[in-house]
Design brief:
Elements: H1 3-40, H2 49-57, H3 74-87, H4 90-117, H5 120-131, H6 136-141, H7 146-159, H8 169-185, H9 190-203, H10 208-230, H11 232-247, H12 262-267, H13 272-288, H14 295-314, H15 324-336, H16 342-362, H17 372-381, E1 387-390, H18 394-400, E2 405-408, H19 412-420, E3 426-430, E4 441-443, E5 453-457
Parallel strand pairs: 1-2, 1-3
Antiparallel strand pairs: 3-5, 4-5
Amino acid sequence: MSSIAAAAQLGEPRAAVRGALVAGWAVALPAYAAAILWVAMHASAISSDDALFLTRGLTRFSVLDFSPQFPGYPGFIAMGRLLLPFAGDPVRALAMLTALMAFAVPPLAAAVAWRMTASGASALAAFALTLCQPLMPDLALSLLTDGAGIAFLLGFLALLPRTDERPGWGAAFAAGAVLAWGLACRPSDAVLFAGGALGALAVAPRITLPAVLGGLAVAVPVALVVAGLEGGIYIDEGMRFISGHATLWGNTAFAATAHQTWVTAIGGVPGGLALAAVMIASVAVALARIRGAPPALAAATAAFILYATWVVLFQNPDQLRHLAPLVVLGGIILAVLMASGRAAMAGVGIALALEIVALAGTTATDPRLAPPLAAAASALAAEPGGALATNAGVATLQAALPGTRVYDAYYAADARLGLAEAAGPAFRLSMTPIPGMTAETEFRGRFAGEPTLRLYRIK
């Protein structure tokens, strides 16, 4: 066979691959732009007490005064304050920051996959799997820190060397600094970041010194600023918060309240259990190949395993957003494994199809819809002078309904007494159906991860 004929035969599959990649990006990038436009069309609105506390922190930082709540999220607050002059008010600044962080995740995921594989197909798969994951609208519209934590973790992974051979000090130092800033933005993801760091250092020990120095260059100033603002109060509040995770709102054997299980929570999302099975299978394959793997793959695998353990044992299944790092990391790992054979390629296709089913089955496309908490506050404002017991958004409803007495339903005896003695109408707002009662109104969540609220009239 002549060299010209051989080159022609070799060029045909390469041309086909390039054509497929061009076609894939031609679909992915307009979908990305459309998602950004759709999020921008939503009015900025408080969706939870945590979001309310974060907005307070943009003007006055105090964890004791829930501005915001522990652990304070100092890095996130600092970035929000930078946007405040452009946004005009704290709610808009927080909405802008949340959207920016969420939409940084797909390109960062693509960068991580490219760094590990030098494969355009893997980069495209990581981008698509991240963009289409069913919790993406929650990351962009919740006004919370979850997207920032994921974005900076991916920035850390993207800066890691391809192998342990001759690691660049500058990149390793920057990786440590980025991871530390992610921790400052979302300290409650400490287990996630620790998993990423341990996984990377286990297979690339040569980066330990520069990465640690980079982390300290960020962590020490942040810690000093927080200590200067809060002093010993911060430590006291931290102990109360940790105790609460184990005994009140966590999913532990010590919890005083009953929660649904993670299996039922994930099963409530169309295709959720099947998608979880695909992600877990991809992580199991990656774990089996961890020796000799790129540092970023080891880091992503370790972060997935440690964080999944933390979520199962200590996080409340009522909050699906805690699963977002697992969906993102699982998608990246699956995309990286594409180079290993057709089974992984099929896995990417199945996972993407399941994500689209879940996204379409849980997301309301109308951007004019308000968050359930805001919609409930608007409905209750029409009947002032009464009382309300709620297990969602106590602080937000107290601020939004000055003419209504709002009770925390966790303190059941106080709530029952307050409703019974109400001079006006009495209501119960609940994230879960109340046996034997029919809801007067239902305020549906706009996407997976945003709880539906049910309003019951007591009298």
